[in-house]
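Sanity check

After download, print the first record. It should look like this:
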Amino acid sequence: MDKQVLFRKFVDFTTGVHRTTHEIAKGIKLDAVTPVQYKMLEYIAVSQPVTLSSVADCTHMSLPNTSRELRKLIDKGLCEKVVDGEDRRKQRIRLSVQGQALMNGVFGHMQTELDRRIEGLSAAQLKEIEQALDLLQTRIFK
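Expected C-alpha cells:
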C-alpha cells in the first residue's frame, strides 16, 4: 500500500471525526462553560483522574492557561482536585458529582444522535464498525 495514500485517508478520517463530533454535539446547551472548558471536561470525563499537564497537552494550552480554566471549573463545582495516593505532592483532577452529571447528559445526547445515524444498519454492519473502531484504537490511537 502506498503510505502517502494511507496518510491522506487518515487525514480525511480524522477530519471526518472532528466534523461528525461537532455535528453530534450540536444542540447541547452548556451555558455554564466555555468551549475550551468543555474540551477540558470531555477529556477529564474519559481519562480521569488526570494531571494538569495531561489536560494542557490534550487541549494544546499552556500550563498557566490550563490552570486558570481549571480553577474556573472547580469554582463552578464541575471538577475537583484529589491528592495522589502514592505521592501526596501530586494532585489529580476528576469530575465532581455535578460535573459527572453534566457530562452524562452530554454523552447521552451524543449517543442519541449516533443512534439516529446508525439506525437501519444491520447487525453485521454494526459489528464491522465496532471491529474497525477497535482496530483503530489499538493500532493508531493507543
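If your output differs, re-run the checksum step. Summary of this record's structure: The two ends are 22 Å apart (CA to CA).
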